Prior knowledge:
This protein is 30% helix and 16% strand. The chain has helices at residues 7-16, 59-65, 90-93, 106-114, 120-131, and strands at 36-39, 54-57, 70-72, 79-81, 94-97, 100-103.
Amino acid sequence: MAGDLSAELRRLTSERAHFCCEYCLLPQDFAIHRHEPDHIVPVQHGGASESDNLAFACFSCNRYKGPNVGSYDPLTGMLTPFFNPRTQRWGDHFRFAEGAIEGLTPEGRVTAKILRFNDDDRVAERNLLLRAGVFPTI
């Protein structure tokens, strides 16, 4: 569980992500709740509490992801794993579209859908941060 991680592993995870959620890119400095390490493959599915299985995640992304490892692609209907920030590049799977985050690949589409990247409040927050020049735009 993320609560059992050492301070060193937590520090490595946050610094490696430049203090931004590795799923939706929300900067930690502008989040209401602190970001936290997320097990990309949850412990209950055999995932280890090791650096290569951890992503820095905002509260919303981590809660929506939960113990899931994937979902059904809304375009193809195929069971597809989520985007993995340790092995995949964000810009290969997503793009910004007027504050929304659009999935470009099956992994991107299922991640955007299940992690609810484009709920109205999240898009509004992202647009405010984009206009202020404080949201990363890979």
